[in-house]
Amino acid sequence: MKAGCKPAPQLYCPAPQPRQRRTFFFEPAVVNLNSSPIDKTHLKKPAHSLRPPPPWRGEIRSVLISRARLARRVHTLARQIEKDFAGRDLVIIALLNGTVMFLADLLRGVSLPLRLDFIGVSSYREGAGAGGLIFTKALRLGVRGRDVLLVDDILDTGRTLTRVLAKLRPLQPRRIKICVLLDKPARRVEKVAADYVGFTIPDEFVVGYGLDYGEKYRNLPFVGLLAPGIAQDVTP
Ligand code: XMP
User: Fold this and answer.
1) What is the pLDDT of residues 82-106, one digit of tens each?
2) Rounded to whole angstroms, how far apart are CA atoms 207 and 226?
3) Is there a smaller number of Cβ atoms within 10 Å at the N or the C end of the chain?
């Protein structure tokens, strides 16, 4: 330094701080969307924005999948299905009752001359625990030589879809593809996979957007988690 020059003033330089970890409701790695383009909006949602709307706060602990995310994803699924089944003789078979909202939104986005039918499946036990299956409504349309898209609300243990597939295969459709809104792979006991999945979810009992607990909560416009004390025999 030349004589007479002042040393440069020391600038305040704080020690580097460790980066704050943002609070997410669930780990991004757990909830993974099975499509491209990947919807990453859930990665940006802090926990407080996932509170259910006031009328549901007593019974619903939190919103797992918001109405907006459902709409975006269902729209994407519909476009994919429309592309994959263009020119085919398509029969959509939906399982009652859980598909009601998903199906209505999905169908509006599939502009193909398809046929629609339903199979009624119900668990013996009311509530959420595992039980035997009974068929409450049989298929009426013929599917022989046709493309079938089987639609269900959630693929959990896989028992329901395995039983339904066993009924459909002898009817000799050209092919059967499976579309589910939710996939919960952690509880799978049967070897069954879906071709179209809305959202892969963690091992939690979910309600809303058609899914029920004791026949309640189907009318929620979002998918949510039950508040503690509401569910008596929810598995897990
Ligand atoms: P499986 O275990 O046979 O399940 O793959 C399929 C059916 O079980 C019901 N299920 C649920 N319903 N929240 C619900 O409201 C859940 O988390 C859940 N897990 C399974 C549902 O009826 C589905 O079609």
Assistant:
1) 999 999 999 999 999 999 999 999 9
2) 7
3) N
